[in-house]
């Protein structure tokens, strides 16, 4: 990471008690989250089906100033951009695979999203090699790259550490780009993700099941800041020394140890 970037902690509301979504989201805002991550699934691009623009609009009416990070896991992302912008999205990330892995289509959609006054990101599935993106991320077409560290569709999956090689490559090529990781992030795996170069952390199950989500957010943010100040380059090792502190093996508070 570079000094221009900062850690951004994003609880994923998919892991919340959806019967009281507004209250659960407010709990994360009160705990100090930077963004709320909203997973939008259509049952086609991924097997699961989640929420639509109406739910996001209702949530916005309760959370006037929260940053809504909308992740479109849908077969036709262009169709859904305007409805989610109107519903209150602050950023929309769509999948490379949903635009036929086509650079021209990806850039055109990013331009349309930006024209609506919000930020945009590009996501890649675990099975998609980073090299497939070609020159898509060059320039300033995108505000963020999302590297999936689980197969998209369901929460509560195990972290796929091999995906961090994509993060390392992206960070070496684009030092000023926000790089988000989503899937299996907790107090342990966040250290490896941050060491690889991720600065935007999506945490679902670990965050909503934590006895003290504020403490977990603070811990994740502190880990991220450590790597912002002392950027890691190259391979991620099992440990990373920072002023005598073994960052990758820092002790995990018991209230969220082992949660995935």
UniProtKB/TrEMBL annotation:
<keyword id="KW-0413">Isomerase</keyword>
<feature type="binding site">
    <location>
        <position position="39"/>
    </location>
    <ligand>
        <name>a divalent metal cation</name>
    </ligand>
</feature>
<keyword id="KW-0479">Metal-binding</keyword>
<dbReference type="InterPro" id="IPR011060">
    <property type="entry name" value="RibuloseP-bd_barrel"/>
</dbReference>
<dbReference type="GO" id="GO:0005975">
    <property type="term" value="P:carbohydrate metabolic process"/>
</dbReference>
<feature type="active site" description="Proton donor">
    <location>
        <position position="182"/>
    </location>
</feature>
<feature type="binding site">
    <location>
        <position position="12"/>
    </location>
    <ligand>
        <name>substrate</name>
    </ligand>
</feature>
<dbReference type="GO" id="GO:0046872">
    <property type="term" value="F:metal ion binding"/>
</dbReference>
<feature type="active site" description="Proton acceptor">
    <location>
        <position position="39"/>
    </location>
</feature>
<keyword id="KW-0464">Manganese</keyword>
<protein>
    <recommendedName>
        <fullName>Ribulose-phosphate 3-epimerase</fullName>
        <ecNumber>5.1.3.1</ecNumber>
    </recommendedName>
</protein>
<keyword id="KW-0119">Carbohydrate metabolism</keyword>
<feature type="binding site">
    <location>
        <position position="37"/>
    </location>
    <ligand>
        <name>a divalent metal cation</name>
    </ligand>
</feature>
<feature type="binding site">
    <location>
        <begin position="204"/>
        <end position="205"/>
    </location>
    <ligand>
        <name>substrate</name>
    </ligand>
</feature>
<feature type="binding site">
    <location>
        <position position="71"/>
    </location>
    <ligand>
        <name>a divalent metal cation</name>
    </ligand>
</feature>
<dbReference type="GO" id="GO:0004750">
    <property type="term" value="F:D-ribulose-phosphate 3-epimerase activity"/>
</dbReference>
<dbReference type="InterPro" id="IPR000056">
    <property type="entry name" value="Ribul_P_3_epim-like"/>
</dbReference>
<dbReference type="Pfam" id="PF00834">
    <property type="entry name" value="Ribul_P_3_epim"/>
</dbReference>
<keyword id="KW-0862">Zinc</keyword>
<dbReference type="InterPro" id="IPR013785">
    <property type="entry name" value="Aldolase_TIM"/>
</dbReference>
<feature type="binding site">
    <location>
        <begin position="153"/>
        <end position="156"/>
    </location>
    <ligand>
        <name>substrate</name>
    </ligand>
</feature>
<comment type="similarity">
    <text>Belongs to the ribulose-phosphate 3-epimerase family.</text>
</comment>
<feature type="binding site">
    <location>
        <position position="71"/>
    </location>
    <ligand>
        <name>substrate</name>
    </ligand>
</feature>
<dbReference type="GO" id="GO:0006098">
    <property type="term" value="P:pentose-phosphate shunt"/>
</dbReference>
<dbReference type="InterPro" id="IPR026019">
    <property type="entry name" value="Ribul_P_3_epim"/>
</dbReference>
<feature type="binding site">
    <location>
        <position position="182"/>
    </location>
    <ligand>
        <name>a divalent metal cation</name>
    </ligand>
</feature>
<feature type="binding site">
    <location>
        <position position="184"/>
    </location>
    <ligand>
        <name>substrate</name>
    </ligand>
</feature>
<keyword id="KW-0170">Cobalt</keyword>
